[in-house]
Design goal:
The structure is a single chain. 46% of the residues lie in helices and 27% in strands. The protein has one domain. The mean pLDDT is 80. The chain is elongated. Strands 1-2 form a two-stranded antiparallel sheet. A hairpin with a 2-residue loop joins strand 3 and strand 4. It has 90 residues and is an alpha+beta fold.
């Protein structure tokens, strides 16, 4: 796919007459979604009294050709988080 940069706008040249700007739009949407995921991860870490990227980690997982984001709690903190979550349920 050929891409042309004009005045800050990326234009896709996928066909000879193509003038779509879908490449830049998709990139912007991806960046916005990634910011939202980071915000949710930070909120979850705060709710659980954990430190993001230290005791709770935002990771990529790949299953069935799909990449997904997930939060992983370190084994050391798991017991503390489990008891905190169970106390909030009752």
């Amino acid at each position: 796919m050929a891409v042309l940069q004009m005045q800050g706008v990326t234009v896709c040249l996928c066909t000879p007459n193509c003038t779509h700007t879908h490449t830049q739009r998709l990139h912007d949407e991806k960046e916005e979604l990634e910011r939202k995921v980071e915000q949710h991860a930070a909120a979850a870490a705060k709710d659980l009294d954990l430190v993001l990227d230290k005791t709770i980690k935002l990771e990529w997982h790949k299953a069935a050709n799909t990449r997904t984001r997930c939060l992983r709690i370190t084994q050391k903190e798991e017991k503390k988080v489990r008891s905190k979550l169970n106390s909030g349920i009752k």
